[in-house]
Amino acid sequence: MSHIVGSLGLSKRKACILVDLSRTAYGYEPHREDDTMLRNRLRELAGQRKRFGSPRLHIMLKRENLVVNHKRTERIYREEGLALRRKRRRKGAAGSRMIIPATERPNQKWSMDFVTDSTVTGRRFRALAIIDDYSRECPAIEVDTSMGGARVVSVLERLADIRGLPEVITVDNGPEFAGRAMDEWAYRKGIKLSFIRPGKPIENAFAESFNGRLRDECLNTNWFLSVKHARGIIESWRKDYNTVRPHSSLGGLAPQEFMELDGRAKMQVALRLG
User: Fold this and answer.
1) What is the pLDDT of residues 210-241, one digit of tens each?
2) What angle do CA 128, 129, 134 make, to 5 degrees?
3) CA geometry: angle at 200 spanning 117 and 151, to 5°?
4) pLDDT tier for residue 16 given thresholds of 50, 70 and 90
5) Is residue 125 helix, strand or coil?
6) What is the pTM of this model?
7) Cβ–Cβ < 8 Å for 156, 165
8) Packing angle between helix 227-243 and helix 205-217, nearest 10 degrees?
9) By C-alpha distance, which of 210, 74, 235 is closest to 144?
10) Which helix (H) or strand (E) holds 132?
11) Using the 8-state DSSP alphabet, how is residue 64 labeled?
12) Each residue of 136-193: pLDDT tens digit?
């Protein structure tokens, strides 16, 4: 526009008439909002939650009413150099996709599995994670150096007093789950143990996914001085996972936030994601 004014010697008014542009639009200068507060908070959250990418950080900023548009978060996220290094996935043979039947209520179906780690002194420990397939809530992560079937039963009995028991529990074929202690306990309680096929961890997808998050966001980002120290850190992470951490399959809600919704709101979340 300025070259028309200069080269033809026209006034701004006549130049605007020539190109069919209002004088208001000609004089408009785009104004970018001050991002200082948003940038500072984004850096702070990214420092606290080192394995969160832009989408989850955006949800947390939105909860604090600091941002609405996800594109703005993504732009600042890139400008601040906060992008995560993603691991390359190994290419494997193509297989059939397994469709897991949807659950309709809490305590309908749980999933359980172990994950292993060690302290700074090299002492190995195991963590038994239990997941409610419906709400994605984790009612317990039991941590110890060894854990047999009787110990697994005691953990489940403890949960029974707090929140009841499920109708079905999905587990692998490890001796802790396939042994006599679990078999007799499940029979007495009228609970079905659903064993996945050997070499098919995808059939225990909820536990596998949860343990992946546990390792990525907690085990791999902390040094454990002792098993007791590990137990405390893992328990803190579990509580944060249930109450704060946005979950993509729950529409960005934490599991307990999702459970506080009424039936219609839960259905709307399911339809939006489905």
Assistant:
1) 999 999 999 999 999 999 999 999 999 999 99
2) 150
3) 45
4) low
5) strand
6) 0.75
7) yes
8) 110
9) 235
10) strand 124-132
11) T
12) 999 999 999 999 999 999 999 999 999 999 999 999 999 999 999 999 999 999 999 9
3-state secondary structure of 17: helix
Q: Residues with Cβ < 8 Å from 64, sequence gap 6 or more? A: 41
Positive or negative, the Cα torsion across 94, 199, 184, 153?
negative
Single-letter residue type at 30:
P
Residue 92 pLDDT: 44
Unique residue bearing structure tokens 């839960």 = 266
CA 74 to chain centre: 18
Q: How many CA atoms lie within 13 Å of 129's alpha carbon, on the beta-carbon side?
A: 28
How buried is residue 87: exposed, middle or buried, by Cβ count under 10 Å (0-12/13-18/19+)? Answer: exposed
From the list 267, 265, 245, the residue with the least C-alpha distance to 256 is 245
